[in-house]
Amino acid sequence: MYAGFWGFTIILAGLYFIRKAPPPATEFTVYFLFTAAMITFLVMSTLECTSVVLDASLTVCKRADYAFASLIFATATIALNLITLGFVWRQWRELHFVGAPAALRPGIRAFGASPSFEVDEEK
To answer: Helix, strand, or coil here: 26?
Structure first.
């Protein structure tokens, strides 16, 4: 999962470098899905790490230093991803949520879109 996110980040950085970045709606959706998956995997790993093996005094990750380092790295990655998600949201909001489906527009307006958020459907 994290290797896929790393690859996505490298591709996205390359697209920004050649000025062919995806629309903010696409970028926000992909970041949101990666973040949700990362949080899910972190919770699953933490639950597995704290599960008891045979004896109540032993857990799966009792002396697994690398497992704890991996969980710390995953947590830091999620935190940075949430910060990036906030920046992408702000960028998308400044562009008046271009690319949002019509069914979501009333809900998006409640999250900070400007009152002039009316898209001309004829164009």
So the answer is: helix
